[in-house]
């Protein structure tokens, strides 16, 4: 008889959420993770610690730039970096401890160690082999490497996102390779702490694939905050001494001319890759995609019956909330229910100030299909609440079907965009039209009124525009 109904490998947002749902559905569940604390990359060295640093440095920015205007006078706070990192560690500890509590509450066994062998009905951790009816692989992702660039987080000169969260001191000059989410969030943190931040990006726009209006506006706002950008630039190598680095790159427009940038610290933020090393997937016969992800069917089952995979290790956006949704859905599938994830409605958020949030289809994607969407746009300059908190930059943009008025997508750059996007997600989930949003009473004064105004702009016009 099997010891477990389900063994889940990896205690990140995909794995631990899946374990909780499996337990709620009455299955005997174990979660395998070798880290000292639960929560995976997101809680330990990703989303959560970066949000703590973004919050602390945003407070600093407010003190330096907006306090005096609001009648708050006095010396700006100075930065105690060691204390800021200790606050960040406290935030992480509270959150990872919370997950441990939830596992106990749901009677889930934490098998502490790294799974070394996975097969149908079996998982080996250390010297022990556990029997299980089902296996869910939620082993996540790791930063991808860049040819010619050696990351060494211990030395602290060329670092990835993990190293960048724990630098021994605030660098004078930080060069970030990659203008994606990680590069811009952590670049913002260090720019606010006083570092001279230069972001080197291969593409011609930041946040590749995002709404073009947002890309332009976002870059302009970040430049105003002091970040410098070198666009259309491919980094080929980084030379290092003990304490300095030289980033070598070529511009697409002059590929024969090598350029260099000096830095105290280089952050490599050029993407992440699925992680499943050491699980013995080849021996188990589990198939991978061409890009090294674990291949699954639409019920998250691999080609081996009883072995499932979710989160960053499979196809799709590498986002904690996508992994969580898959974690719940796969639990329901294993329990014989109908698990479902609506992949067309997964929001993306960048937690800078202002925040950026997107969902659904972009204007460019629709135009590429030959469609002419209706666009409703409302600037935060017309939103009283945003102006009151010095956050009048940015806008809400709704992308709407011209014939049916159905909302197809949205992009927001502005205060609390990451929270506001969900009103639109829910509306889209219910197949709402822009008029449905426009006719819904929105409390005043709130940032959310900007969503309603954008919806009104799809009809007879916004009021405060
Ligand atoms: P990314 O894929 O978002 O961006 C990487 C950027 O690096 C791209 O724009 C690419 O063009 C550029 N690049 C690649 N090679 C280059 C080279 N040789 N020279 C110059 N530029 C180069 O990757 P990122 O920011 O590392 O994030 C990894 C993953 O983690 C993403 O899937 C992201 O969605 C996720 N993440 C999400 C967060 C959130 O939801 N707020 C926060 C942090 C990470």
Notes on the structure:
The strands form five sheets. Strands 1, 2, 3, 4, 5, 6 and 17 form a seven-stranded mixed beta sheet that branches. α1 (13-24) runs parallel beside α9 (320-334) and α3 packs antiparallel against α4. The mean pLDDT is 97. 32% of the residues lie in helices and 25% in strands. The radius of gyration is 23 Å and the shape is globular. It is of the alpha/beta class and 465 residues long. It is built from 14 helices and 22 strands. The chain has helices at 13-24, 40-45, 47-65, 81-105, 161-164, 181-192, 212-224, 281-284, 320-334, 363-368, 384-388, 417-429, 434-438, 449-457; strands spanning 4-9, 29-33, 109-112, 115-119, 122-125, 128-137, 141-143, 158-159, 173-177, 196-200, 228-230, 233-240, 245-251, 254-263, 265-268, 272-274, 307-309, 348-350, 355-360, 374-379, 395-400, 407-414. The protein folds into three domains: 4-143 and 273-341, FAD/NAD(P)-binding domain; 158-270, FAD/NAD(P)-binding domain, CATH 3.50.50; 345-457, Enolase-like, domain 1, CATH 3.30.390.30. The longest helix is centred in the first third of the chain and has 25 residues, at 81-105. The structure holds 1,4-dihydronicotinamide adenine dinucleotide.
Give a brief description.
This protein has helices at 13-24, 40-45, 47-65, 81-105, 161-164, 181-192, 212-224, 281-284, 320-334, 363-368, 384-388, 417-429, 434-438, 449-457; strands at 4-9, 29-33, 109-112, 115-119, 122-125, 128-137, 141-143, 158-159, 173-177, 196-200, 228-230, 233-240, 245-251, 254-263, 265-268, 272-274, 307-309, 348-350, 355-360, 374-379, 395-400, 407-414.
């Amino acid at each position: 008889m099997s010891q477990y109904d389900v063994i889940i490998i990896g205690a990140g947002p995909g794995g631990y959420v899946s374990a909780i749902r499996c337990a709620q559905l009455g299955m005997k569940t174990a979660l395998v993770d070798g880290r000292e604390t639960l929560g995976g990359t997101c809680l330990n060295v990703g989303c959560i610690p970066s949000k703590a640093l973004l919050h602390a440095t945003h407070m600093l920015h407010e003190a330096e730039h907006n306090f005096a205007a609001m009648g708050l006078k006095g010396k700006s706070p100075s930065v105690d970096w060691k204390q800021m990192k200790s606050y960040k560690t406290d935030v992480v500890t509270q959150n990872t401890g919370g997950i441990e509590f939830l596992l106990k509450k749901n009677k889930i066994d934490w098998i502490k160690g790294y799974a070394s062998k996975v097969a149908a009905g079996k998982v080996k951790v250390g010297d022990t082999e556990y029997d299980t009816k089902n296996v869910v692989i939620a082993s996540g992702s790791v930063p991808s490497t860049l040819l010619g660039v050696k990351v060494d987080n211990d030395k602290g000169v060329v670092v990835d996102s993990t190293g960048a969260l724990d630098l021994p001191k605030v660098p004078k000059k930080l060069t970030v390779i990659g203008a994606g989410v990680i590069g811009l969030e952590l670049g913002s943190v260090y720019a606010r702490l006083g570092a001279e931040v230069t972001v080197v990006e291969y593409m011609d726009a930041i946040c590749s694939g995002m709404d073009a209006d947002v890309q332009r506006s976002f870059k302009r706002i970040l430049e105003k905050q002091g970040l410098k950008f070198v666009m259309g630039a491919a980094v080929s190598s980084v030379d290092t001494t003990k304490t300095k680095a030289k980033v070598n790159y070529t511009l697409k427009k002059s590929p024969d001319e090598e350029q260099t940038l000096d830095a105290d610290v280089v952050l490599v933020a050029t993407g992440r890759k699925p992680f499943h090393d050491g699980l013995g997937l080849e021996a188990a016969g589990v198939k991978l995609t061409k890009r090294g992800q674990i291949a699954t069917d639409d019920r998250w089952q691999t080609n081996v019956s009883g072995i499932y995979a979710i989160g960053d290790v499979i196809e799709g956006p590498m986002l904690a909330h996508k992994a969580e949704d898959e974690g719940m859905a796969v639990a329901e599938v294993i329990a014989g229910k109908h698990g479902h994830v609506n992949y067309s409605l997964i929001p993306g958020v960048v937690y800078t100030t202002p925040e950026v949030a997107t969902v659904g289809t972009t204007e460019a994607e629709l135009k590429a299909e030959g469609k002419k969407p209706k666009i409703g746009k409302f600037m935060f300059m017309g939103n009283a609440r945003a102006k009151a908190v010095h956050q009048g930059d940015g806008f809400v943009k709704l992308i709407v079907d011209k014939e049916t008025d159905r909302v197809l997508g949205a992009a927001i750059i502005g205060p609390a965009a990451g929270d506001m996007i969900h009103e639109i997600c829910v509306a889209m989930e219910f197949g709402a039209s822009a008029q449905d949003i426009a006719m819904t009473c929105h409390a005043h004064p709130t940032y959310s009124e900007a969503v309603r105004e954008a919806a009104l702009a799809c009809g007879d016009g916004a009021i405060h525009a």
